[in-house]
Amino acid sequence: EAGVVQSPRYKIIEKKQPVAFWCNPISGHNTLYWYRQNLGQGPELLIRYENEEAVDDSQLPKDRFSAERLKGVDSTLKIQPAELGDSAVYLCASTRGGLTGELFFGEGSRLTVL
Amino acid sequence: GQQLNQSPQSMFIQEGEDVSMNCTSSSIFNTWLWYKQDPGEGPVLLIALYKAGELTSNGRLTAQFGITRKDSFLNISASIPSDVGIYFCAGRFQGGKLIFGQGTELSVKP
After folding, report:
1. Percent of chain B with pLDDT over 90
2. How far apart are CA B93 and CA A3, in angstroms?
3. CB within 8 Å of chain B, chain A residues 2-31
4. How far does CA A8 lie from the centroid of its chain?
5. B45 and A CB contact within 8 Å
6. Residue A19 has pLDDT above 90, yes or no
7. Residue A51, CA distances (Å) to A54, B18, B35 in order
8. Which of A10, A56, A69, A110 is deepest in the core (most CB within 10 A)?
9. How far apart are CA B73 and CA B24, in angstroms?
């Protein structure tokens, strides 16, 4: 079974440029998460999807961040425009859902904003 | 706010020694998870705990879910060099939200 796939693995952009990250969850996993991980910190939740519905986006900076999961499978996270403080690793995770589903993470997309 | 306090922040041990780390919170969790993250990789699940007081082992790893559902510990016995990495605890609320501790960085000296 393939794991959570993310792309790109690395992205370097200048501030004020847009950037997008893509995630394909494990087949059959209804719940998808986007996390941001700053250097030396634990992952912090940005948004959680149950199928195509965003059920928790309270920590997503909506002025510049957006996400979508149109068909309830893969998902895209966008930042426009990027700021220096957005440099981080963006992690996608998925789970079958329910109250006890275990989360499986992708390798992450490392963003550097210059 | 909702947060996990993970300690210690870092550990430097000799190969063969046992390791213990823990997480505490003021919040009650439905599930506790322990992850390990290697440089440049995503976190990998080590152990999942579902019931208060549950004690679970996975090879040399042992973890327990606190009776109050507010804390958990992870023990690693007879550490080896490949145990090096960052260990994260994560607590999952009944509604599904998962939050992480700040991590414990483990260094093992051969």
Report:
1. 84
2. 24
3. 4, 31
4. 12
5. yes
6. yes
7. 8, 42, 25
8. A69
9. 9
Task: Give the whole-angstrom CA distance, residue B35 versus residue A64.
Answer: 30
Task: Name every chain A residue with its beta carbon within 8 A of the beta carbon of B102.
Answer: 41-42
- Write out chain B residues lying below 8 Å of A45, CB-based: 97-99
Q: Write out chain B residues lying below 8 Å of A46, CB-based.
A: none
Distance CA A87, CA A68 (A): 21
Other CB atoms within a 10 A radius of the CB of residue B44 amount to: 13
Q: Is the pLDDT of residue B86 over 60?
A: yes
B43–A contact, CB cutoff 8 A: yes
CA dihedral A107, A39, A81, A23 (to 10 degrees): 10
- Residue A100, pLDDT > 80, answer no
